[in-house]
Amino acid sequence: MLFNTWHFAVFFILVFALYLAFHKRLRAQNILLLISSYYFYGCWNWKFLSLIFLSTLLDYWCSLGIEHTSSINRRKIYLWMSVAGNLGGLAFFKYYNFFAENLYAILNPIFPAIQQSHLNVILPVGISFYTFQTMSYTIDVYRNQMKACRSFLDFAVYVSFFPQLVAGPIERAERLLPQIQSPRKVTWDEVRSGTQLALWGLFKKLFVADNLAPLVNKIFADSAIAPPAPLESLLALYAFSFQIYCDFSGYSDIARGIARCMGISLMENFRIPYFATNPQDLWRRWHISLSTWLRDYLYVPLGGNRKGPGRTYLNLIATMLLGGLWHGASWMFVLWGAYHGLLLAAHRLYLKITTGSERLDDSKHEHIAIRAVRIFFMFHVTTFGWLLFRAQTVKQFVNLCRSLLAGAWNWTSQSERMMLQVGFFSIFLIALEAIMYASRDTSWIARKPWPVRALVMGTCLALLVFFSPGGGREFIYFQF
């Protein structure tokens, strides 16, 4: 079920009406949330409901086992059962064919008679998100950072909460579970601000992302055969930068808005990332729930920055390599992760050499012109990385690089049309986010007087009505 369809609109209206009717009955509300969440997920493929249920059962049981024993060895056994169960399921459904194909490519020259093992495994939508969410809960219980949840119903709602189930944010149990366990009061202010946030997310998805998608798809499809015209390649790359940002952050905004209408607060997952001034700043603004998850459950356990500069750089690169692989079973995602790992390591080394400190350089008193140059440069560094992310093969990536670096930059009618389209579908977004950045307030719209809110939301709604391509297109991160 997609947020951008009438199916979901009818579904949410019915769920919300029942949710309000049960406003004094917390258990009834949670039962409703669990049933509606399983229906929401089951609309894709009801067979995969068993995976969510088994993951929920495993981590519920393991966390109680950890808490009920004082034996260090037994606690570790329960922890590794959770980690192995979660990562084992993720590895099979998401990476089996990838590893089997690469193993076959390595062994076939040595053993020509060997047969390639290939299973027609369907990737369950959202498995990477809910797997990380449930696994982090068990790890937090093991670290004594929170108590194990006694109610299976409450924990099951935490795992499957439908607004953020498929594409995040990846919520921590210490933040979301208490909201599920406590009585919730729906207020008019929450409904109003939640509706505005969801509308803003729909604007990003339907007006910006879905309208830019055909431009991107055409150029990247052409590049699989031969290098496109340089200016068209560059414009397609700009278009994809805005497409993936608006597609993914749009989903997060809709999820947060829907949850807020029901009195539940989800974490902010994007904080104007294209206004980042350096690689560290970028990952404090982009997919925050994943970047903090990787930091807390991978980078820090690897040693973080506690074992010297060389080990710190290796830990950064290893973390981002695995972060790239998290996105999908492809060497292009691994290369994209390596690219960002090297950027983070290089920036940290640069700070060490130039300032003697590895702390984030983000002075509030920096001259506006210097900051604008840094933002411009970092946007293009990030945008080039999206070339690795979007290209499906190394050949496609090489063709686009050849186009950008060695082609003749001729102005054509096609490039003129592309420039006008990219500008038209992104200018309103850029203007509003520039205001948010200048005011240091990502909730700038919600805090303004009603005439300003009405003007902004009315403009978004009008653009959606007149220019939305329709069709209920899937969100990009559903494949991850």
The shape is globular
Largest sheet: none
How many distinct helices? 18
Mean pLDDT: 89
What proportion of the residues form beta strands (DSSP E)?
Answer: under 5%
Q: What is the helix/strand order? A: HHHHHHHHHHHHHHHHHH
Question: What integer value in Å does the Rg equal?
Answer: 23 Å
Task: Give the proportion of residues in helices.
Answer: over 70%
- Give the structural class: mainly alpha
Oligomeric composition of the shown chains: single chain
Low-confidence stretches: none
**DSSP strand count:** 0
Distance between the termini: 16 Å
Question: Would you mind describing this structure in some detail?
Answer:
The protein has helices at residues 6-21, 26-42, 49-67, 72-107, 127-142, 152-160, 173-181, 188-223, 230-261, 279-283, 288-299, 309-327, 331-355, 368-390, 394-406, 413-439, 444-447, 450-467. It is mainly α. 40% of the residues are buried. The mean pLDDT is 89.
